Amino acid sequence: MTTILAALFPILLILAVPVAHALLIATGGAILIFDRVPFAISVQRLYTPTQSFPMLAIPFFILAGNLMMSGKFGDYLVSFAKLVVGRLHGGLGKVSVIGSVMFGGVSGSAVADASALGNAIIPMTVREGYPAGFAAAVNASSSTISVLIPPSIPLILFGLVGNTSIVDLFIAGIIPRLLLAVGLLLVCNLSGRLRKFPLVPLEGGFREFKRGILYAIPALIMPVFVVGTLRFGIATPTEVSVLAVAYALVVSKLIYRDLTWAHIFKCMVSTGVMTGAVMLVIMGSSLVQWVLTLERIPLLLSNWLLTTLEEKWLVIMAMNVVMILVGTFLDLPAAILLLGPLFVSIAHAIGLDTVQLGIMMVINLAIGIYTPPVGTTLFISATIAQTSIGRVVAELLPFYLIALFVLLLMSYVPALTFVFL
After folding, report:
1. How far is CA 194 from CA 43, 198, 403, in A?
2. Which spans in 15-150 are helix H?
3. Which residue has the higher pLDDT, 261 or 299?
């Protein structure tokens, strides 16, 4: 069955079949052709992973992000970031990085970050005289920081499929997201100095700066609220996600004053669509994992890797290479759901903590999000900047180096993962 599955799945992806449907068709075809298990049991396996209480955290966190993102929040956030770093060398590039760090605490999604902030920042950056390729490159790379910031949907998914504490994953993501942010800010600063990018003067003075802080505080509080509530055992991840929706409703109504019934309805429809897409991928990947487990593929793969590579650092390197390659073709949630259970068994075999594995996997797959041929944030950013993919990729080279450096640190210096645990 695995052979048929492995042959059908890439063919369906090449034919532009959506990932979720490709998973279901390939696995269903393999099961029907070999007829080794009752088809009724296979259908039951589709729905089993969706009947999970912790899984409810996904739609509620998506709804909380939608409620805050679709109003005036993005404008206030960009204005604040521009006030803080806009006047420095490479300032508007830094605005994108700082904006992503704050925006990720609300959305937890790199694609949402790239689209929302990109539409606000990229045109402004190009108007000020920055190259369109550079503006798109900063947006494409910095938006992936959000997948390490609570309420990160990828970290939640890994916690569920890898049987790993979601709280620990959220806390372990602090160091890598800080390293990525500092690294990207450094690239922006050096690019601004060496390439003589124009400086943006500070407008509005201290009064405008104080106003910007007041409007940015809700974004800064969200990830602290999520991690703090989980860390001190006040609520479970699902309960926190509901509280996050209530928080978003209060902030939108009382602070930003842009909450209407039409706004709520639009956000709920968008949340339903996004949740449906994620759940369909979860169902398809669950069926794939069931087939692989029936044929003992995880055990055979881990034994082969340990026998062939022998050294732990080589196994980790091989895992990183596979994750980056898969990340360039599959969306992040689908890749986590497919690779997570496989790599968890390998991690147990080599003594790698699953929290560290989760951080490694998310960073790897995040790099894939802005890497050709399928890089989602890469294409979104290039489209907004109205420039070619080739120019954006050329500008991305130093950003790739920073991301790979952080990945190597998190892979081979375990202490960085557990600093706050």
Report:
1. 59, 11, 21
2. 19-34, 39-47, 57-69, 73-85, 91-107, 110-127, 132-142
3. 261
Cβ–Cβ < 8 Å for 106, 222: yes
Whole-number Å distance between alpha carbons of 128 and 125:
5
Residue 348: exposure state from Cβ atoms within 10 A (0-12, 13-18, ≥19): middle
Phi, psi (5° rounding) for residue 165?
Answer: -60, 120
The pLDDT tens digits of the residues spanning 128-160 come to 889 999 999 999 999 999 889 888 889 999 998
Cα distances (Å, whole numbers) of residue 28 to 16, 45, 84, 288, 292: 18, 12, 53, 9, 13
Segments in 295-311 forming alpha helices (H) = 297-309
Q: How many CB atoms lie within 10 A of CB 195?
A: 12
Give the separation between CA 104 and CA 188, rounded to whole angstroms: 19
Handedness of CA 286, 289, 294, 299 (dihedral sign): negative
User: Could you tell me if 363 and 403 are in contact, meaning their C-beta atoms sit under 8 angstroms apart?
Assistant: yes
Contact 113, 146 (CB under 8 A): yes
In sequence order, the 6+-apart residues with CB closer than 8 A to the CB of 133 are: 385, 387, 388, 391, 392, 394, 395
The one-letter amino acid code at 198 reads: P
- Record the pTM: 0.86
- Non-local CB neighbours of 38 within 8 Å, separated by 6+ positions: none
Is the Cβ–Cβ distance between 241 and 151 less than 8 Å? yes
